[in-house]
Write a structure and sequence with these properties.
Pfam family, one: BPD_transp_1_N
Family: Belongs to the binding-protein-dependent transport system permease family.
Distance between the termini: 17 Å
Transmembrane segments: 25-46, 115-138, 158-177, 197-213, 242-260, 266-289, 301-323
CATH class of the domain at 113-288: Mainly Alpha
CATH architecture of the domain at 113-288: Orthogonal Bundle
Strand content: under 5%
Largest sheet: 2 strands, antiparallel
Structural class: mainly alpha
Keywords: Cell membrane, Membrane, Transmembrane, Transmembrane helix, Transport
Shape: globular
Main location: membrane
Order of helices and strands: EEHHHHHHHHHHHHHH
Number of strands: 2
Amino acid sequence: MTLVTGRATSGPLWRVVAVMTARRLVAGLLVLFAVSVVVFVATEIAPGDAASASLGPDAGPAAIEARRAELGLDRPAPLRYVEWLGGLFRGDLGVSYASGVPVADIVAARAGNSLLLGGLAAVLLLPLAVVLGAWAGLRAGRLADRAVSKSTLTLMSVPEFVTGTLLAVVFAVQLGWLPAVSFLPPGQSPLDRPEILVLPVITLLTVCLAHNTRVVRAGVAQSAVGEAAESARLNGVVERRVVWRYILPAALPPVVPLFARYVTFLLGGALIAETLFGYPGLASALVVASASRDVPVVQAVGLLAAAVTVLVNLAGDVVGTLLDPLRRVPR
């Protein structure tokens, strides 16, 4: 039996991971239920509704009431919530108030675009953060470390919309290398026009890469002077093996949950990046749906974002636990 952070754990690692996963899944379901309530209540108390938004400001009370009855908005809110929740269990997300298209079709089309954008950013984020962070951490206090630290601090200090705007001005307006707007003709995938992904991906990466690089750098710098690394050096182990065998295994596991949280942010399609470049993802769909009071779309996107957050964070905790036996205690 091993004592870890004041708690004891025993048994094979697979059992510990299974128990932790089961507990997190139960907690995740409770979180999703709470999110469904919050999203539904928020859409209910927001000023205006889909009926008045679709008919315009010149519509009379009778026309608005008729439209509310057509959309089912005249029924009690608790009843509509129960019906919506029941539809979720059947895989029915409802129908868009604005377009009459099934919400599942809207979400499926936009989710694929957001996952592509966020997936590309995540694929670049992890190796770049590890390489830059480890490179700076192994040279703590030297010129390379100071350069990386100042650069990342600068990136963290600049708002995302400012970074995106500057990128558009330089690479789209002045140089003309890349499109300033991620326009996508109907029926096409972003992969058909990969140039529209470049500026949104770089914009998404800036703050995420800067923060994760600094965290990795701190962990590597601490592990590089730790007892395990120093003992290995005293026993004649070559520095390259010290880095791979002792420093990185000690430095990386604690930052895996942080990576997971940023991957969640990236996969969700950052609102600012998608809106700034007009990228056809979930975030931009959420903006349009909110403006038109298209409640079913808002509810579906909000719940999907919460589900992705729960699953990615769970995966990050599982990976961190597998990499670091000292963190095997279910929380």
